[in-house]
Automatic annotation (TrEMBL):
The keyword Transferase applies. GO terms for molecular function: kinase activity. NCBIfam families: glycerate kinase (TIGR00045). InterPro entries: Glyc_kinase_flavodox-like_fold, Glycerate_kinase, Glycerate_kinase_RE-like, Glycerate_kinase_sf. Gene3D superfamilies: Glycerate kinase, domain 1, Glycerate kinase, domain 2. Transmembrane segments: none annotated. This is Glycerate kinase. Coiled coil: none annotated. It holds the Pfam family Gly_kinase. Belongs to the glycerate kinase type-1 family. Keywords: Kinase, Transferase.
Length: 398
């Protein structure tokens, strides 16, 4: 290791530990554990995300201003929510207004859930002067092809009986769509679809087939949702919406139950979620002078290798010549897989406490007990506190 005459600097850039801690809480616990182990360490806490749940938190932690409002929830109920704003850029997160965590998934909710609230957030941001809107789409409750979002932005969806109700279960009723009333500011606004999902809207790899089951849809419900999405595309194409069928077949159209499709109809640019979040949070600037980056998420596995936060952070750190390691609740990666992803090491809570349930319930204290192991990756020799509590792998000493 190279000896330096300054305190070691560590950038803590984790994603959330789903079901346990937010990304900000993960970073805070790691910082507390590191400071106890290495008293002179300088830590910088930067919660990040991959474009899904946690994107809003990351934007706010990076200095964006919260904008609070009441919007339509996933089942049509009013919900208190917020988005983030910096200058003329706004960050909206679907999970914060129409999230799967906000419903009890079942057939009824799978058919009724709407993306209208997301459209209301976008409209509010447009009215406030935003001209770049980053749409984080993970963790959605709806499978409505983004119809609710477009309706909130001024589109009119009708059948022979009048306006069509919200929800994927009503899409099959649509016979006409009028987009003339779309918010005029959309024409001069850049929409960024922050998502790594590459599913098309329809078919066996589409929004309903792949993501419908986790939203409570059984096979019969999936068939209804698929019919509705297909009808939605057919009607848009029939009324002359440019590129409707091409957009439906495009990578990312199936994101968030088809909100990706609606964003593409509005001219959105699709970007990898973690890359967009890193840009929003000024990650590159925060890397200057850093000796080690610590990233992570609740479960590191093969899925993490495809655009998830830890790999994106590691790649950005490597590009700047900074080593990166990961912490997680549990890991399914081999050492070779971790190394190929740019991670110098992976430290899991299950290394400290084999009981996964306990790891989930007590993730914070366990992260603090795990944090001293990160000192081994610093470029200068450090003296840990006296042997015992700080380095013990026993729960009782955590």
């Amino acid at each position: 290791m190279t000896t330096t005459d300054r305190a070691p600097r560590v950038l803590l850039a984790p994603d959330k530990f789903k079901g346990s801690l937010s990304a900000g809480e993960v970073a805070a616990h790691l910082a507390a554990g590191l400071r106890r182990a290495v008293p002179d360490v300088v830590t910088d806490e930067l919660p990040v995300a991959d474009g899904g749940e946690g994107t809003l938190e990351a934007a706010l932690a990076a200095g964006c201003t919260p904008v609070d409002l009441v919007a339509t929830g996933p089942l049509g109920e009013p919900v208190a929510t917020r988005y983030a704003r910096r200058g003329t850029t706004a960050v909206v997160e679907m999970a914060a207004v129409s999230g799967l965590a906000m419903v009890r998934p079942g057939r009824a909710t799978a058919l009724a859930a709407t993306s209208r609230g997301l459209g209301e957030l976008v409209a509010h941001a447009l009215d406030a002067g935003a001209r770049e809107i980053v749409v984080g789409v993970g963790g959605s409750a709806s499978t409505d092809g983004g119809a609710g979002m477009l309706a909130a932005l001024g589109a009119r969806l009708t059948s022979g009986a009048g306006d069509v109700a919200d929800g994927g279960g009503h899409l099959h009723e649509i016979t006409d769509v009028d987009l003339a009333g779309l918010h005029p500011a959309l024409a001069e606004t850049e929409i960024v679809l922050a998502s790594d999902v590459d599913n098309p809207l329809l078919g066996e790899h589409g929004a309903a087939a792949v993501y419908g089951p986790q939203k409570g849809a059984d096979p019969a419900t999936l068939a209804e949702l698929e019919l509705g999405l297909a009808t939605w595309v057919d009607v848009l194409a029939t009324v002359g919406v440019t590129g409707a069928r091409d957009h439906a077949a495009a990578a990312g159209a199936g994101a968030a139950g088809g909100v990706g499709f609606a964003c593409l109809l509005l001219g959105a640019v699709r970007r990898p979620g973690v890359e967009e979040v890193l840009a929003l949070t000024g990650f590159a600037d925060r890397l200057v002078g850093v000796d080690l980056v610590v990233t992570g998420e609740g479960s590191l596995d093969a899925q993490s290798l495809h655009g998830k936060t830890p790999v994106g952070v590691a790649a950005a750190a490597a590009a700047a010549g900074v080593p990166a390691v990961a912490v997680c609740g549990r890991s399914g990666l081999t050492a070779a897989q971790a190394a190929a992803a740019g991670l110098g090491a992976v430290h899991a809570l299950t290394d400290v406490e084999p009981d996964v349930g306990r790891c989930i319930a007590e993730a914070g204290p366990l992260l603090e007990s795990l944090a001293p192991r990160l000192a081994d990756h610093l470029p200068t020799p450090v003296a840990l506190h006296a042997a015992g509590a700080e380095t013990s792998t026993s729960w009782e000493h955590a």
